[in-house]
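Postdoc handover notes: sequence design on the structure in folder B. Input tokens:
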């Protein structure tokens, strides 16, 4: 084109966007992209779309003029009237590729579909690199977004079809078939075959006459065995606006994901320390995972889930068995090292020492201290022989260079911990304050302790090698290895030493009263300084996830509620009841005074009267009062300065050890704790004019002694604080922090959302594509005692139990009346239930979960072993429980009483498990069979639950 001055002008193309999307009043759609024409990623400067109705759809459209050859990344955003972003698309950014032969003034129309987070899950490494890795590794057949060159026919339009098939199997073709002749008129033989364009995208071009539009169509897959899989759901439609003055010359259809029935898989969960094999040394080891993967495949599982595997050796005793109290959020635990694999040239003496240790440590439960000490002792002997060859090897040097940022502080911390005989870095003198200069001196080759530093490098290097070997083996066998991301770190950890600014060290993390503990929990971790973490876009969290992704393709976010709000306790608290949510909107002094609440000293001070002391302590009340309390007015008491916190009470009781009044039947500490928690309001330690209602304040005698007006006001404000006023704040908080985690790796993420669940949690998880957790005995639905697996949503992980509660067998035996209700309402039987969880009952419960719509059904190994009576009789059910949340000093030491080798050879239980998974329609990992036929399994339509002459049909479970 030439203008009036004789100069050639730039060719422009009319670029038109079209997307169906339902909005609420006051909401709009905006396109923002990488080029200035679309706002340079500034949503306020993006292209505002205009809505119109087309049948029962709301279609948003917009157009811009762009130069020929224009390329750009873009995304859709949902905004309010002020263009504040309310929601954005998930997945990769879209790309604009204009046809090479497009002429000046021609129209290129882009038909898009909103990309939801749930649709992008199959782009995560769990599916992309593991389960469907063969489909993702297909050869590239055509460039992405390629249009053919210009064609001359005026009455035609070039249509570019594009669909994503992330779940496609190897040797499968993709077609589009539809109502037009070019699409075979619904005959696959005449359909349009698509080419693989990379990243699971399949594309093809088709020249159509404009008179043939609109058309209806669907995509289908044609497998190597001749099987044809047509998309589910309604027919797709290519619609061209006939009211427009000009029709497009090119139409690009971005049709999202190939629509299939929801994918569902199954997995097994077991802590690393609980695994038993013939090779281990008193505890499960990383290399045992290879055998566990083999068993998982044989049993029909696509996933193996572990508890945290980070180093927890803080105290140098069995307390460190708690896997959620990390010494380092990156370093692996030496407990899981296989010492036999450290070298190929282990001396006979050390081999004999290993054999003796194996026999000595092969107990019913893990002996944490003896096992760790033995492994480190043997490892040091091997290290002294081969340290020079290992530390100078190219493999070690590569490992060190890639990990020195965390490895050096970790090794220095371990050295200082052992030197000062404490992990409390505030006791380390001049090393209390971390600095890079001090660190470099500590790890210098010139120091006398350099061998000790190198020993920690050496252990981490071999742990890396062994876990990497197991991880690669799992991926090769199409098994997802799922890790666990703890919500906290130990107060005395490498992370709090190196980055104290990221933590609120005067506080403690826990959970309010819930199913796990009616008194609340105090985990002892410092809470996070989210404001400080946000300054570098949560680099500390992103580094954690990047490190995890070296080994895992999925992970569980422990206590995901903590990313919405955390239950924050003062550092001096021992129990978990008297806390507050952070962040939260406190009750202001002005707000309370307007409501007639003004006596804050009375409401915030523990309410202690003489009659209460007499009732609690009997004849010992006066001596206890004289030791712990002051009488500030007649018959009214308050705690003395040296015992006015729970930790001070513990210390004072230790000083009084041996006193006669401590030997009474009364639990003095518990009762003193109850007194100090007898408050109605908690004053903010950082702002004296802010207050928080104590959890379950109506249960306190402090509250009961108030006048009716005060009671009514405080009950209303209590409900507002805990269940209403925070929802928007917590939702916004989660939408700041969780995306940083999810975007830092391509692992599949699941959230542990048990406990006191705010209303905002499930919508946010849905928005971000996070799977929630469903445990049948802790229903998320209101008004029911037991969850109904058949009603779970697809975006969930369901399980009959978890590590934080009793196993299926133990739960059944804990409460006879509850088991009877379950048997009647869930199983559907009016008969007396068996006294124990017999294999028939176990089968019923497991199958019920396998048949749930949940994307994943993950079964604790203990629950699976309940299918075989021989395994249930060899150990009491109560011994199978991994954790007791009510006991802060619980010993995490459960070991499976059956070795992996025994399970591998037990065809009976593998067949039982695989039949449950297979009959439920869940995906099964393929077994190595010559003819690729499925494992022969038969299952009756009705599963009998035998107890005397009773028979209960499986159908009753679906009430």
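Designed sequence:
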């Amino acid at each position: 084109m030439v203008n009036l001055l004789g100069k050639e002008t730039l060719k422009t193309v009319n670029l038109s966007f079209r997307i169906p999307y339902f909005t609420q009043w006051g909401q709009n759609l905006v396109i923002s992209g990488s080029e200035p024409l679309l706002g340079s990623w500034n949503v306020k400067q993006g292209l505002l779309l205009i809505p119109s109705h087309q049948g029962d759809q709301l279609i948003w459209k917009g157009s811009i003029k762009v130069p020929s050859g224009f390329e750009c990344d873009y995304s859709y955003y949902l905004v309010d009237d002020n263009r504040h972003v309310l929601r954005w698309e998930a997945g990769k950014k879209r790309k604009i590729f204009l046809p090479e032969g497009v002429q000046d003034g021609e129209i290129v129309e882009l038909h898009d579909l909103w990309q939801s987070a749930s649709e992008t899950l199959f782009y995560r490494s769990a599916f992309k690199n593991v389960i469907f890795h063969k489909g993702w590794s297909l050869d590239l057949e055509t460039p992405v977004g390629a249009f053919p060159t210009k064609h001359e026919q005026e009455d035609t339009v070039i249509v570019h079809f594009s669909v994503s098939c992330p779940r496609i199997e190897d040797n499968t073709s993709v077609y589009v078939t539809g109502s037009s002749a070019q699409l075979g008129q619904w005959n696959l033989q005449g359909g349009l075959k698509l080419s693989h364009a990379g990243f699971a995208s399949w594309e093809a071009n088709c020249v159509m006459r404009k008179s043939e539009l609109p058309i209806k169509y669907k995509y289908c897959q044609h497998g190597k065995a001749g099987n044809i899989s047509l998309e589910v759901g309604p027919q797709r439609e290519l619609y061209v606006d006939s009211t427009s003055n000009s029709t497009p010359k090119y139409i690009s259809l971005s049709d999202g994901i190939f629509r299939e029935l929801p994918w569902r898989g199954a997995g097994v969960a077991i802590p690393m320390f609980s695994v038993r094999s013939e090779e281990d040394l008193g505890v499960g080891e990383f290399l045992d995972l290879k055998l566990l993967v083999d068993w998982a495949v044989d049993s029909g599982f696509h996933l193996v889930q572990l508890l945290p595997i980070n180093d927890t050796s803080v105290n140098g005793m069995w307390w460190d068995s708690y896997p959620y109290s990390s010494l380092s959020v990156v370093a692996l635990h030496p407990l899981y090292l296989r010492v036999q694999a450290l070298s190929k040239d282990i001396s006979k003496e050390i081999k004999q020492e290993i054999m003796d240790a194996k026999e000595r440590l092969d107990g019913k439960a893990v002996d944490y201290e003896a096992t760790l000490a033995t492994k480190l002792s043997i490892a040091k002997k091997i290290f002294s022989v081969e340290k020079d060859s290992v530390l100078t090897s190219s493999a070690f040097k590569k490992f060190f260079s890639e990990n020195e940022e965390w490895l050096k502080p970790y090794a220095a911390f371990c050295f200082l911990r052992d030197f000062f005989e404490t992990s409390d870095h505030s006791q380390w003198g001049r090393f209390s304050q971390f600095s890079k200069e001090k660190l470099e001196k500590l790890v210098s080759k010139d120091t006398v302790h350099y061998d000790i530093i190198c020993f920690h490098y050496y252990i981490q290097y071999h742990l890396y090698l062994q876990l990497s070997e197991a991880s690669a083996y799992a991926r090769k066998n199409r098994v997802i290895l799922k890790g666990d991301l703890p919500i906290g770190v130990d107060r005395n950890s490498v992370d709090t030493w190196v980055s104290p600014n990221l933590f609120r060290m005067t506080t403690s993390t826990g959970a309010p009263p819930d199913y796990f503990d009616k008194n609340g929990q105090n985990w002892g971790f410092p809470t996070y300084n989210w404001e400080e973490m946000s300054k570098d876009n949560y680099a500390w969290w992103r580094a954690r996830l990047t490190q995890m992704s070296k080994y895992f393709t999925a992970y569980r976010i422990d206590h995901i509620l903590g990313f919405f709000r955390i239950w924050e306790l003062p550092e001096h608290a021992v129990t978990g009841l008297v806390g507050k949510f952070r962040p939260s909107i406190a009750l202001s002094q002005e707000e309370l005074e307007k409501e007639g609440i003004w006596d804050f000293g009375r409401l915030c001070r523990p309410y202690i009267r003489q009659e209460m002391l007499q009732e609690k302590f009997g004849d010992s009340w006066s001596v206890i009062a004289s030791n712990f309390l002051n009488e500030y007015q007649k018959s009214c008491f308050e705690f003395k300065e040296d015992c006015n916190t729970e930790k001070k009470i513990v210390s004072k009781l230790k000083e009084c050890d041996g006193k006669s009044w401590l030997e009474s039947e009364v639990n003095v500490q518990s009762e003193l704790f109850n007194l100090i928690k007898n408050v109605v309001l908690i004053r903010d330690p950082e702002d004296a004019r802010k207050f928080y209602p104590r959890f379950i304040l109506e249960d306190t005698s402090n509250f009961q002694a108030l006048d009716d007006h005060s009671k009514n006001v405080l009950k209303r404000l209590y409900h507002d604080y805990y269940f209403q006023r925070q929802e928007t704040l917590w939702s916004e908080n989660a939408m700041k922090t969780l995306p940083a985690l999810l975007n830092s790796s391509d692992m599949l993420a699941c959230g542990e959302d048990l406990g006191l669940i705010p209303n905002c949690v499930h919508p946010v998880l849905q928005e971000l594509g996070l799977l929630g957790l469903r445990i049948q005995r802790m229903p998320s639905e209101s008004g029911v005692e037991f969850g109904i697996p058949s009603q779970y949503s697809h975006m969930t992980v369901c399980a009959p139990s978890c590590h934080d509660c009793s196993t299926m067998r133990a739960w059944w035996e804990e409460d006879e009346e509850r088991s009877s209700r379950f048997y009647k309402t869930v199983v559907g039987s009016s008969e007396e239930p068996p006294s124990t969880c017999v294999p028939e009952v176990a089968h019923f419960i497991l199958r019920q979960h396998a048949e749930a719509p949940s994307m994943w059904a993950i079964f604790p190994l203990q629950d699976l072993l309940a299918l075989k009576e021989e395994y249930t009789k060899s150990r009491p059910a109560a011994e199978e429980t991994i954790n007791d949340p009510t006991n802060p000093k619980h010993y995490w030491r459960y070991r499976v009483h059956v070795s992996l080798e025994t399970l591998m050879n037990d065809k009976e239980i593998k067949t039982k498990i695989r039949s449950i998974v297979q009959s439920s329609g869940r995906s099964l990992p393929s077994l190595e069979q010559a003819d690729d036929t499925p494992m022969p399994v038969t299952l009756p339509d009705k599963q009998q639950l035998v107890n005397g002459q009773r028979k209960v049909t499986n159908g009753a479970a679906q009430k």
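Context for whoever picks this up: DSSP finds 28 helices and 38 strands in the chain. Don't rerun without checking with the PI first.
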